User: What shape does this take?
Amino acid sequence: RSPIVLDSDPGIDDALALQYLLGTGLWDLKAYTSVGGNLPAEQTYLNARALTRAMRIDADVPVHRGTGRPLTRLPYTSASAFHGKAGLGNETLPDSTAAHLPESSAQALLRLSRDYEGELTVCATGPLTNVAIALLEDPAFAHRVKKLVFMGGAAQVPGNVTPVAEFNIWADPDAAEVVMSSGIPFTMVDLDASLRWLFRPADLAAVEAAGAGTALAARLLRVYMDAYRRHGGGDACPLHDPLAVGVCADESFITVAEGAVIVESASELTRGKTVFIPSAAQQVYYADSPVLTSRRAVTGRVALGPGPRDFVK
Ligand code: BDR
Ligand code: CA
Assistant: This one.
């Protein structure tokens, strides 16, 4: 099993991502690092702790407290309209019995990148604030991790929190820009892919019928599906964060293109827009643009759509 850190802002689909990660049996989860996002940082930390207890890993997997605010901005409004008042639907889960750890999420990321140099996968399913803090403190972090797979952005499709921006990137665009210009090997699992693998009522019925082990997931999925229905999503909901976990092990859930991503942070109107520049088109786009030329070297892997392997099944 390979070492991984899950950096998350639970959040319903974050919670599902954790359960899915554990269920694959592929990963050695070294830490569950929380970050503010769907709810303020204190709440996502408490949710992360409660989830480790609900999934019976609280004795083995340390939970770290993430930062309370984006790099340079005020904390954002929460996404409780989708995730429920405290972030986990209607659940009130008991707290973990583990002691509170003094080490922050960013510090834990840095330590684990040294302990597992060249081996550590980081899967981020919230704003990229913790990862950016780690990079700002020690830029070599970018070269010690094996890869960063994050859920965020919209390469070619509209946004979900503004017409042009996806929530995780919009919440801390400066952090996203730090990350994507750092040279860290990244895969961006964006709305282009996550909105194309939809979970439907028949899938929910299958999860509900699967027994006690999936009861919590089923309750969360029901709330999430209702929220998407209320927000005009129809009878289906995307599984953004579980998809990122899936991609850590198998990129065939998405269709990937190589390229650079530049994050807009100066304009409030287009804040958090991810501008994707395919490597193949660099010659054309970079010809007359000093802005683009200065960032040409930093490429990553970007989802442009769903892949050949069905993620929902
Ligand atoms: C992302 O935003 C959050 O609300 C979800 O948990 C997911 O990480 C989707 O845009
Ligand atoms: Ca999330």
